[in-house]
Amino acid sequence: MIARYTRPEMGAIWTDENKYRIWLQVEILACEAMHRLGRIPAADLKRIRQRARFSVKRIDAIEKKVNHDVIAFLTNVAEHVGPSARYIHRGMTSSDVLDTSLAVQMVQAVDIIIKDVKALRLAAATKARKHMYTPMIGRSHGVHAEPITFGLKMALMYDEFGRALLRLQHARDVIAVGQLSGAVGTHAHLEPFVEQYVCRKLGLKPAAISTQVLQRDRHAEYVAALALVGASVDRWATELRHLQRTEVREVEEHFGSEQKGSSAMPHKRNPITGEKLSGLSRLLRGNMVAAMENVALWHERDISHSSVERIIMPDSTIGLDHMLTQLEKLVRTLRVSPKRMLANLNLTHGLIHSQQVLLMLIDRGISRELAYRMVQKHAMRSWETGTDFRKLLEADPGITGNVRKQDFDKVFSLDTHFRDVKRTFKAVGL
Predict the structure, then answer these.
(1) Containing domain of residue 381, as a range?
(2) Which of the four pLDDT bands, split at 50, 70 and 90, describes residue 8?
(3) Are 275 and 188 contained in the same domain?
(4) What is the per-residue pLDDT across 226-241, written as a single tens digit (0 to 9) for each?
(5) What percent of the chain has a predicted confidence (pLDDT) above 90?
(6) How far apart are the first and last CA of the chain?
(7) Residues recognised as catalytic
């Protein structure tokens, strides 16, 4: 169901056509390696290279009879190759083809996702630089805390997806491994040179050791990396959804000129992209659990993992590709309201400067406990009555006896909060 959302290049990776193309490549490369070892005559290798092909429709028809996908594939290839097909798949088992080919598909998929993350980081960096000093309120527990800038928020996003990029690159290394080691991984009928040759040609590393299959902790780590990137997508989709709430309205998803927000209420402009992204991230986390369940297989192999992977690998990669491209578009076209941010910043009548007042009194020699009580008393009154916080402080002789007017001007300024912005941007590479 996710597939209909994706760009064609990602969806194409998981088609039967691409899968069988890689299978055929593995088989031909194995024949080349065996020819080098003197196992296949040159004339037969030439015929295999020239004639080997397949038909998805024909493979499907054969599989209905033999109930084995690799045998159906080999049967169809042999129909085209003729007698020389006796050398194809020599000494190999199905998983030599399946696991090595799946590794190629997973590498192809993660390479697209890596590009997606780079594009998203570019969009976040652009927004961060534009709003480097755009003031807004920072929130903890959903409650106004102290001032930040919208640029810092976007710089945080840029930095988080930098870590996502590293995770994906590591996951690529973990999964870029192939095997052609025979029925139980002992190379009994297939020299290690064949495995090395095929993997090198495919851009994979040969497994140091395998059973009939590659060990599924690799695949679990790969899917876990995708799910963790999806969790970061969810984190930022949730952030932007909160900032679009009517009571906040500091940012808003792009809303098309002919777009409709509700079948019943014409005024609605809903954060539907963010909501969809949060929902899809749940699927990725569920797939991660399924991938971990695949790690425990019986002895040298069973196929309990196979049916699961046929679903979770396409769905996780296709889903995350879609999620990242949608989040990139959301960020790039995001409507930002500096005026609304400033209005919200001033909503609590100066209470956001309470820590600066506290520290100022401590610097004047008042104990922390007493200073805290003094500031909190006026803060709570301001909170309950809406009275300007600074005015309440200035009317307290216990405070004004220690503080000059210019001191109040300093602590009620945004400058203190923004003096480190440039260094922070530099620290994250912006």
Answers:
(1) 351-411
(2) low
(3) yes
(4) 999 999 999 999 999 9
(5) 86
(6) 38
(7) 141, 262
